[in-house]
Structure formats: structure tokens, C-alpha cells
């Protein structure tokens, strides 16, 4: 099956930025005849069923529908483990005992961006690894990908951003606390769910080159068989990324201020050039009007309705 998806992390209610990204993911998928799938990215917090349920309720209220039950990432651990084991068998995984502070303090390679892994633990022999493991107890080493030579930089074509080039450092596959890392899980899950269209916030565009390297190493579908569209974030009235401090920004908060779901849906559509100011539109109208080529490429600045 050919499918798009929305993959929220269950860390609280979705704000307007998240809702707008979800609406776009749904529009891209449905307008291209794809299925639309939902995945709860709950690796960080274990099962946070409460937040996830509220998120799904809000999405459904907006008119977004999805095929089949939402997939919980924490239930997909066997596939994640198998992918890491496969990479390890091929010598592509190494233990890393660095803390965040170690990484920031280490000298960086000349063109590496700040925060890129400097390779401190990459070439350790068994004795050095054992000593490092001992030194950091009770913490366990993280597992990192040994990025093959030549793959340290990668470009892809984004439907909205055009050509995006990014650095691929030795990314973490499994964290020191045993949790599977986002980049590995997202690649394995998208492939297993049949996702061939990824629409998400443009704050994740810089992770995509890393994910494409993983797709290729694991023999999973990669661009051009998978398409990416990274959508601009929503900014608050101050011009900074929309956040809770900007007042009523979730569907429920807005409803509590007398701004109903139709109004929120219509304002989101207006921000995408799919409704006239003040016009009330249903989800079918938004879908019928959707044209990816005409989407605004600029961030949308949310200003509350005057009350
Ligand atoms: N879980 C991520 C988020 O909520 C999205 C990951 C993705 O779409 O690849 O920001």
C-alpha cells in the first residue's frame, strides 16, 4: 500500500502548529490517493495513552481520518532490535560512552556543525571499550551507527524546500538508557507500515539525510521511492515558534475561549490559502481545493481572533 502518515509524540495536547502539520500530511496523502496512517511516537515516555488519546480525538474533530488503528511505536521493539542487530552484524554499530558534555567539549571536525558527533569512541579496541564501559557504570554505552565513508553528507529533493543537503554524523541507534533512537525507529516503522510519503515539520529536515542513509543501509525504500515534504512551522505573535506561552493554542484551549472547531479548521485552511478570510470550510472543501504547488512556503504567524 502507498501511504502517508502523521506521527505525533504524545507529550501533551497538539497545538496549532501540530494540527496544521497533521492537516497537511492528510491533504498530501488523500489528494494523491494514498492511505493515511497514524503512529504514536511514544518511545521516550513509555505508553502515554492519555495524551495520545486526546491528540487522536482532536485530529478526528478537525475531520482528519486515518486507516486502521493508530500504531504504537513501543509495540514495534522487535523490528527495531532486528534492524540494529542486522547493522551490528555488518560491523556498522559501535558502543559510545560519551556524555553530551564530552561531545560538546571534544574538538570538532573542520566542517561539522555544532553538536555533530566527533567520533571519539569510533575506533576503540576491545580493551578500550571494556574500560569505557566500566568507567560509566551504572550508565550503559549508547550504540552508534558507523557511517560509511562517502555518506557523511547527503542531499535529497523536498517537495516544499527543494534540494536539502545535510550532514550525516555517526547517529545514535540506541540510547544509553536502552531506548531506541528516533531516527532508527522512524525509518524502520515507516518502511514496515508501507509509508512512501513523509510530511512533517521542517525542524526535522536536517534529520532526513541521516534517515536516508539508514534506509539505504537497511535495504528499505528510500527517495525517490519515498517522498518528503517538510512544512514550515507556525510562529506565535512574537515571531518565535508557537508555544504554550502564546496563550490559547490547542483545540481545547481555543474551544474554552469560544473558538469552535469549525473556526479553527477554517483558520488553518486560510493559512494554507485554501479558504478566504472569514470563510467557513469543511474538510471536504479543503481537500478539493488543495494544490501542493500553491502552498505558502513561509512560516504562518498565528494571531488570535479578536475577542
Ligand atoms: N514524532 C515527531 C514529532 O512529533 C515526528 C516524527 C516524524 O514525523 O518523522 O515531532
UniProtKB/TrEMBL annotation:
> In the UniProt record, does the keyword Ubl conjugation occur?
no
Q: Which Gene3D superfamilies match?
A: HUPs (3.40.50.620)
In terms of Pfam families, this protein maps to: tRNA-synt_1c
InterPro entries to which the protein is assigned, alphabetical: aa-tRNA-synth_I_CS (IPR001412), Glu-Q_tRNA(Asp)_Synthase (IPR022380), Glu/Gln-tRNA-synth (IPR000924), Glu/Gln-tRNA-synth_Ib_cat-dom (IPR020058), GluQ/Sye (IPR049940), Rossmann-like_a/b/a_fold (IPR014729)
Q: How is the cofactor bound?
A: Binds 1 zinc ion per subunit.
| Keyword Ligase among UniProt keywords | yes
Q: Which residues form the Glutamyl/glutaminyl-tRNA synthetase class Ib catalytic domain?
A: 5-262
EC number in record: 6.1.1.-
Required co-factor(s) are:
Zn(2+)
Q: Which UniProt keywords apply?
A: Aminoacyl-tRNA synthetase, ATP-binding, Ligase, Metal-binding, Nucleotide-binding, Protein biosynthesis, Zinc
**Binding annotation for ATP:** 244
Give me the residues that bind L-glutamate, please: 5-9, 41, 182, 200
SUPFAM superfamilies linked to this entry:
Nucleotidylyl transferase
Report the residue ranges where the short sequence motif 'KMSKS' region is annotated in this entry.
241-245
Query: Where is Zn(2+) annotated to bind?
Result: 96, 98, 117, 121
Q: Where is this motif: 'HIGH' region?
A: 8-18
Q: What function does the entry list?
A: Catalyzes the tRNA-independent activation of glutamate in presence of ATP and the subsequent transfer of glutamate onto a tRNA(Asp). Glutamate is transferred on the 2-amino-5-(4,5-dihydroxy-2-cyclopenten-1-yl) moiety of the queuosine in the wobble position of the QUC anticodon.
Tell me its family: Belongs to the class-I aminoacyl-tRNA synthetase family. GluQ subfamily.
Q: What is this protein called?
A: Glutamyl-Q tRNA(Asp) synthetase
Species of origin reads: Leucobacter iarius
Upper lineage is: Bacteria, Bacillati, Actinomycetota, Actinomycetes, Micrococcales
Q: Which gene encodes it?
A: gluQRS
Amino acid at each position: 500500500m502507498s501511504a502517508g502518515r502523521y506521527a505525533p509524540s504524545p507529550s501533551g495536547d497538539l497545538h496549532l502548529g501540530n494540527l496544521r502539520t497533521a492537516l497537511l500530511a492528510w491533504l498530501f496523502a488523500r489528494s494523491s490517493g494514498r492511505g493515511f496512517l497514524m503512529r504514536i511516537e511514544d518511545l521516550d515516555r513509555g505508553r502515554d495513552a492519555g495524551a495520545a488519546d486526546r491528540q487522536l480525538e482532536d485530529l478526528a474533530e478537525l475531520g482528519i481520518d486515518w486507516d486502521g488503528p493508530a500504531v504504537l511505536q513501543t509495540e514495534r521493539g522487535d523490528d527495531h532490535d532486528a534492524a540494529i542487530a542486522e547493522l551490528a552484524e555488518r560491523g556498522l554499530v559501535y558502543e559510545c560512552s560519551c556524555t553530551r558534555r564530552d561531545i560538546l567539549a571534544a574538538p570538532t571536525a573542520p566542517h561539522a556543525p555544532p553538536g555533530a558527533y566527533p567520533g571519539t569512541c569510533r575506533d576503540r579496541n576491545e580493551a578500550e571499550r571494556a574500560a569505557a564501559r566500566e568507567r560509566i557504570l551504572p550508565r550503559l554505552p549508547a550504540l552508534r551507527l558507523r557511517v560509511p565513508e562517502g555518506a557523511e553528507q547527503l542531499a535529497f529533493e523536498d517537495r516544499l524546500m527543494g534540494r536539502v543537503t545535510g550532514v550525516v554524523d555517526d547517529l545514535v541507534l540506541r540510547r544509553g538508557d536502552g531506548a531506541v533512537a528516533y531516527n532508527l525507529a522512524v525509518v524502520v516503522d515507516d518502511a514496515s507500515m508501507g509509508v512512501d510519503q513523509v510530511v512533517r515539520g521542517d525542524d526535522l529536515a536536517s534529520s532526513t539525510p541521516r534517515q536516508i542513509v539508514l534506509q539505504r543501509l537497511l535495504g528499505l525504500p528510500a527517495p525517490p521511492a519515498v517522498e518528503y515534504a517538510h512544512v514550515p512551522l507556525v510562529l506565535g505573535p512574537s515571531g518565535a515558534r508557537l508555544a504554550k506561552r502564546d496563550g490559547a493554542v490547542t483545540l481545547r484551549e481555543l474551544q474554552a475561549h469560544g473558538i469552535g472547531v469549525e473556526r479553527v479548521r477554517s483558520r488553518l485552511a486560510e493559512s494554507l490559502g485554501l479558504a478566504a478570510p472569514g470563510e467557513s470550510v469543511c474538510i471536504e472543501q479543503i481537500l478539493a481545493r488543495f494544490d501542493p504547488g500553491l502552498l505558502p512556503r513561509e512560516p504562518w504567524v498565528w494571531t488570535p481572533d479578536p475577542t
